[in-house]
Amino acid sequence: MTQIQNPVTIFSTPVGVSCYNGEDGQVGIWPSGGLAPYTFLLNGNPILNAFPLDSLVENLSGGTYIVSAIDDNDCMMRDTVEINYSFSSFTSISNFKGCRVSW
User: Fold this and answer.
1) Which residue in 69, 94, 86, 91 sits closest to 23, CA to CA?
2) What is the DSSP string of 41-99?
3) How far apart are CA 20 and CA 17, in angstroms?
């Protein structure tokens, strides 16, 4: 078995959705190591508009996602990210940004 000298690793950063049932969450994926260019996956599906060196996935709803980066040597690294509801922007009722709110 050959040991990879410079394995691919990833750093992923989630951004929560702005309201309940919102679909404006994001996750940034930044790989390092391995051999560029990289292929990116979200829950096992290719991210078609990804850049060869990093990726930003937008329009995500709240939930758990598996992000992956595969380098040119077919070495893969996975990470699990959680997109949460971000309530920090709810300072007043006018900040709901068009989300449907039922009381």
Assistant:
1) 86
2) EETTEE-TT--SS-EEEEEEPSEEEEEEEE-TTS-EEEEEEEE-B-GGG-SSGGGGTT-
3) 7
Chain centre to alpha carbon of residue 42: 7
Could you tell me the residue ranges of all domains in the chain? 9-85
- Give the global pTM: 0.76
List the one residue out of 40, 47, 52 whose CA is nearest residue 79: 40
Q: Which fold has domain 9-85?
A: Immunoglobulin-like (2.60.40)
- What does the pLDDT look like over 15-56, one tens digit per residue? 999 988 899 999 999 999 999 999 999 999 999 888 887 899
Q: List, for residues 89-103, the tens digit of each pLDDT value.
A: 443 343 344 444 444
